[in-house]
Specification:
5-stranded parallel beta sheet, 19 strands, Guanine Nucleotide Dissociation Inhibitor, domain 2, 3 domains, globular, FAD/NAD(P)-binding domain, alpha/beta
Length: about 500
Amino acid sequence: MRGDSRASLSRQPDSVLKIVVIGSGFGGLAAAIRLQAQGHHVTIVEKLHDAGGRARVFRQDGFVFDAGPTIITAPALIEELFTLAGRKLSDYLELVRLDPFYNVRFEDGTVFSYNGDRESIVSQIRAINPADVEGYEKFVKAADEIFRVGFALIDKPFDRFTDMLKVGPDLLRLDAQKSVAALVNRYIKDPRLRQVFSFHPLLVGGNPFQTTSIYALIHTLEQKWGVWFAMGGTGSLVNALVQLFTDVGGSVRMSAEVTAIEVNSASRRANGVRIADGTLIAADCIVANSDVARTYIDLIPSTARKSNTNKKLESMRYSMSLFVMYFGTDIKYDNIAHHEILMGPRYRELLEDVFTRKILAPDFSLYLHRPTATDASLAPPGCDSWYVLSPVPHLGGNVDWKTAALPYRNAIVSYLEERYLPGLSSHIVTERQIDPRYFQETLNSHLGSAFSVEPILTQSAWFRPHNRSQDIPNLYFAGAGTHPGAGIPGVLSSGKIVADMIGVA
């Protein structure tokens, strides 16, 4: 059963619109479901043959690999989509809470088991540096206040500068001009604990030493609602949202890359989208879940973009990219948790190499994902499914991935084998890799950035590319590059912002 077939959808809009959503990532799916539930006629057009965008799935030799995000927080934002459509999340998907959220491992052998148990966290802090217990409690109070103010803004549009002025005093009071690392370092002194409580901006494409301290709210977000996993992998969440969208009457066109957004030069309004086979799909409104910079630069004539010019878009700062190796092993490593953060010998210096110098450093910090720790169905019996992720510079740097990819892969495997996964190289039975070229060529991401616009203060809220285009009044944006930003809660909220803007009028 897919819930009650008599879906209690929102009231019919006064004017039913034909809406095209470009891209089937989480932001596009969230907007599409909400707009369809409002009573509009919504079509998703997707370049690839499968849905999900960055969250698509690779299947290979009996192994299932989630290509992109694997950390689910704020599950209520997902459940809300099903409730709006008169359905039950549990009829489509099973979410399980993880414990630990992550193991954070250091090269000196220290392991911090990061979870939602305050007593456990304090006990581990005391074992590493007793003097930091008091500082952690102060950090928690600061993060809680940031969460109280900041999370309330996650689904509010910043369409006008006055929207920014309203929250300006709060941002100043919370020292939003400081970085997450600066906030953490104010209260915590041990260098390992400083890393444990400041790495989170990397999960949304930010440098902890440059990302606004507003992102410290992630700590409270995780402590409040946990870290979750979708059984079957993140791809099962994508499939559930696609199924929900079609169940309420939405339409999806795969393998349909948009090559142009047609704009009426007189009205400045978009008429529809043209796809690669030449077909024009007419639309009253367009929601772009595609990369913001590439959407403006590649799909819209410069004459129709007085505000979002090429110069403006190209001058923005974009997040780092990723090197990711997906692999399957013919044995299980049961000492490894579902999520592992493997800290290397350098922290700030490595991040400067990635974000500022844009060079491929000889060392690395890694995110190691072992979903078979929770769901054995993602690999053949007795096997493990994995990916290992390394932040790397986007294509604005000087890395030649044609020659760099294989040596980098080999260095990562050797590192894992030496420190964490003994005998790894002899147990890998299938693998594949992606690097910044994948983000640029397959996902159409500007500079091969993995998270679009970098989340610094001067590129946040009103300063970020707007959810409603300043140039084309019926063009909207949902996804990582617009407000509020990357991460599953952020992109789902961008879909809500867009649907509320279009509304039922």
